[in-house]
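Late entry, written up from scratch paper. The run itself happened at the end of the previous shift, but nothing got recorded in the book at the time, so transcribing now.
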Amino acid sequence: MTMQHLFTKETDKKEGKLTVVVPPYTLEPERLDYLLDYSKYHPAVRVEICEKNDLLIDQDVEDGKADIGITLLPVNTELMNVYPVRAISYCALVYEGHPLYSKGEISFQDIKNEKIIIENQDSKVNHLFKKICADYGFKPNISYEASDYNKIQWMVHKEMGIGIVLQNYPGRALYNNTHELCFYEGFVCKRVLITRKPESIAVGVFLDCLRNGRVLAG
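Output as recorded:
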């Protein structure tokens, strides 16, 4: 029996299903070709995609509720396989009229006493941001925790504080009175794809589609 027959046997089951869990704003339209390609060649496998924050994604993959997750480091490498996707940067979103608005870049110290709007505690960015601030010797004044970037941007638009958002995220230009400012110290996170050990053949075939679609690094 050839490897191709093994793949076909595994992935052509009528009851086949792959569950993929991603953070909001991860799946840009131009990056969906690999899903179409996979569905074309494996029509009997139903691909389900849902959006959750990072810590919930990790938990779903660990518990076997999801086959594949896209999340941020760190992850539990004892239970999960890890594949690099790309490095992503976070920045501050500032409203027009704020004293920092006209700056090209800012420091973490610049926001020491500012009201901060950030994703909720199910997101790793929330915890990573707090750790960075602690490394610079202060506890951030987090006034609001939101479930998605649209809410963060709306609150910044309403001058309720400074937002911490993914740099250049899709849909970022909702309001013309908000402006992204990079941290000159850098705020870079590593986005990865995770699967639970051991991987099924169906998951392996799906990962091949991802690599062929140049979604994974390397």
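The radius of gyration is 20 Å.
(Scratch paper discarded after transcription.)
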